[in-house]
Design brief:
Layout lengths: L6 E3 L16 H8 L8 E5 L1 H9 L3 E8 L14 E5 L1 H8 L7 E6 L6 H6 L5 E5 L5 H13 L4 E4 L9 H7 L8 E3 L3 H10 L2 E6 L6 E2 L10 E6 L8 H6 L2 E4 L11 H15 L2
Parallel strand pairs: 1-4, 3-4, 6-7, 6-11, 7-8, 9-11, 9-12, 10-12
Antiparallel strand pairs: 2-5, 3-5
Helix pairs in contact: 5-6, 5-9
Length: 276
C-alpha cells in the first residue's frame, strides 16, 4: 500500500471513526455538521480525486478511512494523520456499498469570508447566487460548471444546502474547493447589497418578460451575478423583483425549462461569451 502506517478498525461503532458515522442518514449528518453540532467545523470528502483536490485547495486533513484491501499507494499528504483501515462490512455500514469510492477523508473547514468581503472585492467579477437551492446534487453540478466556466464566487441564501456536504463534493468532483463562497444573512438584503456594489444581478427564469441570456454584452471588468432558484419552484417573486434584469434560455419543442444544473452551465457559458 505504502509506508504510511494504518490503524485497523473491525467494528463500525469504533469511536475512533465517529466522524465518519451517519453518512447514509442525510438528516443526521446535517444536524451533526450544522453550527453547534458535534461535527461543526469539518466535512467529508470521498474518493481519491476529490480528496486530492481538497488538499490542493489548502484544506487540512483530520483523518482518513480506507478499504483494508486497498492496493494503491496512499498519498504522501496522509502521513501524520490517523489513517483507519476497515473491512467491507464496516465500510458498507458507514458509507454504503454502492457509493463507497475507496477512501473517505475528514477535513477541517476553513474560516469563511463574509458575503460583504466578496461583494467588496472588485477582483471578483462573476458571481453565482442561489436561492433556496437545497438539493446537493444540483448544487454540486452548479459548482463544477461554475469552476470550469469562469465564475469567481458563490453566494448562498440561508436556506440553501451546504456546498461541502458529502454529496455536493462528490458531484462537483471537488472542483468547487478553490471557489470562494459565503452565506447571505438575508437573500433580498444580499441582492440589494450586490447591486449597491455595482454588480448587475441577472435572474434566470423561463418567464416571458425575460431576455435571451445570449444577447448580453459586457466589458471584461463589468461585475455580474447570475441568480438561480430551486429545481421545483424557481426564484421567488421577491428575488425576481430584486434582480436588475431577468434572463432566459430559449427552449424548443414546447419545453418550458431545463434542470437547474444544466441551465446554469448554459448561462455560465453565455456570460463568458458576453465578455469576449
Amino acid at each position: 500500500m505504502s509506508g504510511i502506517p494504518t490503524i485497523a478498525v473491525h467494528e463500525p461503532s469504533d469511536p475512533r471513526i465517529d466522524v465518519f458515522q451517519g453518512l447514509r442518514d442525510k438528516a443526521l449528518r446535517q444536524r451533526r455538521e450544522a453550527p453547534g453540532g458535534d461535527m461543526d467545523g469539518v466535512f467529508i470528502a470521498e474518493g481519491d480525486i476529490v480528496i486530492n483536490r481538497a488538499i490542493a485547495a489548502g484544506y487540512t486533513l483530520h483523518s482518513v478511512l480506507i478499504d483494508a484491501r486497498r492496493s494503491q499507494p496512499l498519498p504522501p499528504d496522509f502521513d501524520g494523520v490517523d489513517v483507519f483501515a476497515a473491512g467491507q462490512q464496516v465500510l458498507e455500514h458507514i458509507a454504503g456499498h454502492r457509493s463507497y469510492r475507496g477512501a473517505l477523508a475528514c477535513f477541517y473547514r476553513k474560516p469563511l469570508q463574509t458575503s460583504r468581503d466578496l461583494l467588496d472585492d472588485t477582483s471578483v467579477r462573476s458571481f453565482v447566487i442561489v436561492e433556496a437551492l437545497n438539493n446537493p446534487t444540483n448544487l454540486g453540478t452548479i459548482m463544477r460548471c461554475a469552476a470550469g466556466l469562469d465564475i469567481d464566487a458563490l453566494l448562498l441564501s440561508p436556506d440553501s444546502c451546504d456546498p461541502l456536504s458529502r454529496r455536493c463534493c462528490r458531484v462537483s468532483m471537488g472542483e468547487g474547493f478553490s471557489m470562494p463562497y459565503a452565506w447571505l444573512p438575508d437573500m433580498i438584503e444580499g441582492l440589494t447589497a450586490a447591486k449597491a456594489a455595482g454588480i448587475e444581478v441577472l435572474a434566470l427564469t423561463p418567464n416571458s418578460d425575460s431576455i435571451d441570456v445570449a444577447s448580453l454584452r459586457y466589458r471584461p471588468d463589468d461585475r455580474v451575478a447570475l441568480l438561480l432558484g430551486s429545481e421545483g419552484s424557481g426564484l421567488t417573486e421577491h428575488a425576481l423583483n430584486a434582480a436588475t434584469r431577468r434572463v432566459r434560455i430559449p427552449m424548443s419543442r414546447n419545453a418550458d425549462s431545463m434542470n437547474v444544473g444544466n441551465a446554469a452551465a448554459v448561462a455560465f457559458y453565455a456570460l463568458r461569451q458576453a465578455r469576449s
